[in-house]
Amino acid sequence: MHRDGVTRDATELDHGGPALDSPPAAAGVARRSLIPEINRRRVLQLGAVGLLGASLGRPAWAWAQTSGATGVDAALAEPETIRSANGFLRVELEVAETSLTVGGRPAVMLTYNGTVPGPTIRVRPGDRLQVRLTNRLAVPTNLHTHGLHVSPAGNGDNTFVHVHPGESFDYEYQLPDDHPPGPFWYHPHEHHLVADQIWSGLYGGIVVEDLEEVPVSRDRVLVISDTTLDASGHPQQVSDKERMMGREGQLILVDGQLRPTLTARPGERERWRIVNACTSRYLRLRLDGQRLDLLATDIGRLPEPRRVEEIVLFPSSRADVLVSAVPGVSALEGLAISRMRSREGGAPSGAPGALATFQVSGSPVPALPPVPPYPEHPDLRGAQPAARRQLVLAMGEGGSRGTDDGAAHGTGESGVFASIDGRPFDPDRTDQVVHLGTVEEWTIRNHSGMNHPFHLHVWPMQHISTDGRAVGPIVYLDVVDVPAGGEVTVRIPFEDFAGRTVYHCHINDHEDGGMMGVVEARAG
């Protein structure tokens, strides 16, 4: 589903266009108007398949490229990697509809730079990252750097920017010198279109490198996603019920491939940076016959690796894992897990089965040095919160409340009504005002019958308790799972960055349906 893996450094990325370190052009880029100049009903009709023929007077096929075929069970081909150099990286991402191969059959997907996933971006703490996003679709899009602790203002990680058809926008992110290492990712955040655009192929990995190297034989980025293709090879449009439940695709892809094969030699220690880029799917992963040691979940690096038997990833969460290769053939298995749990228990959803094959053979390699310890994150349980807030997640059928102005009621063509604190998302309303330099305690309550992965942009959260049960070790996350009928308490250090951003359910259909709010951090 992508070109052969290529690594390029920042010096090879200047294509002679306008300098990305100049201020972003104001022309054609609107902020804080939901989807201006385009009829909302038409946008939602076009959202899933992106496009056919509406933009700039040209058919979408004018931009179509053909990627090399990638069959089922083929050797893993990781996405292109682009690395920073000398504290700087400039990247150009073009969003377009592309013809390629998915699971051995022709498909038409939305892509970054013609591939699914898009290129992997590798940076270091303290780096300056510039991204020019060019939109070749018939509908608006934008960019969110999920999990990065960077400014949400201006041309930073600003979810209120809209990049309209045929336009470009220059994003710039300054990573703090002490930014935690680990796997992150990027994806669109255009309200009402997030689920359809991710479902159609718009996602890619980000890696923040360690300041002190972790000794490994190989470092892989595994982006797991899902979709369903219709008879024409386009991502299938889904029903209102599927949006309500959170869609799950028939094809579960690893780096855009169906059941790829990974190979290693006995004794090798591989680092797998696993990203759950599925629109709604929870992942419960095992690799029986191999040793797994967890380095981090989301932004929460552990002081030392912890042996695990399986890994659970909520939609949008990540795991940083060491795999110590043992001779034999193992399957990276997706096991059954329920998104509909209640306190009385519930039937799990079906098991996805084998997602990839890990083949270990050949002569053994010498043992690697131990992994250096990592400083423990600060424990906020002893802090005095500046405020304690309660947020309530709820949802229900919204068809009777839908209007042509879906922004007003969190509904529209999707037929989903979802809310936080009884109000669906309004980008012009600020729901929470916080102050920089403080710690707050938030309790997120779930009044619905299914789990909701709660995501806060910019600031990581220390997980304190679930349903009143305290979390033992210090755990920092940017996504916490709120069980059906239950609650989760977190503490949040509001540090470094002033500005407005959002918090929301990361079942993307629920986010599009209105389960999102706005938080503004103010100095003083």
Describe this structure in words.
Helix content is 6%, strand content 40%. It has five helices and 35 strands. With 524 residues, it is mainly β. The longest helix has 8 residues, at 40-47.
Overview features:
524 residues; mainly beta; Immunoglobulin-like; 3 domains; 5 helices; disordered N terminus
Tell me the helix content: under 10%
CATH architecture of the largest domain: Sandwich
**Beta strand count:** 35
Q: What's the CATH H-level homologous superfamily of the largest domain? A: Cupredoxins -  blue copper proteins
Rounded to the nearest angstrom, the distance between the terminal CA atoms is 49 Å
Task: Give unreliable regions as ranges.
Answer: 2-69, 342-347, 398-414
Number of domains: 3
Strand content: 35-45%
Per the CATH scheme, the topology name of the largest domain is Immunoglobulin-like
CATH class membership of the largest domain:
Mainly Beta
- Gross morphology is globular
In this structure, how is the largest beta sheet organized? 7 strands, mixed
Radius of gyration: 22 Å
Give the mean pLDDT. Answer: 85
Task: Describe the structure concisely for a colleague.
This protein has 524 residues and is mostly beta strands.
